[in-house]
Design a protein that fits this description.
Number of strands: 0
Helix content: over 70%
Strand content: under 5%
Radius of gyration: 14 Å
Shape: elongated
Order of helices and strands: HHHH
Distance between the termini: 16 Å
Structural class: mainly alpha
Number of domains: 1
Number of helices: 4
Largest sheet: none
Length: 94
């Protein structure tokens, strides 16, 4: 995965938790299109991370199942941790 794609993936991954918190904790009237797009992005990230666990050689084989079930269960809460540990790599400097 190229550096640009990793950057986009990282932004989407780290932005979803604050966006969910803002939507849940405020009385903002948000257009339905925004909420629909956020849900689509979340499901897309969820499926991507579940797929990536099996494909990524940086994930220790004995930890694949734990990571899969953790992301399956807690999704947006642990996806940033997975991204930072196994996808970001050393070449992506923030």
């Amino acid at each position: 995965m190229g550096r640009g794609k990793k950057a986009i993936l990282g932004i989407l991954t780290f932005a979803q938790v604050p966006l969910i918190a803002v939507l849940a904790l405020t009385d903002l009237e948000v257009p339905g299109v925004f909420i629909f797009t956020l849900v689509l992005v979340q499901f897309g990230l969820w499926f991507f991370y579940l797929w990536d666990i099996r494909q990524n050689s940086r994930v220790p084989q004995d930890k694949e199942r734990i990571w899969w079930w953790t992301i399956f269960t807690f999704g947006p809460l642990v996806e940033p941790i997975y991204f930072w540990r196994f996808i970001r790599g050393d070449e992506l400097a923030w």
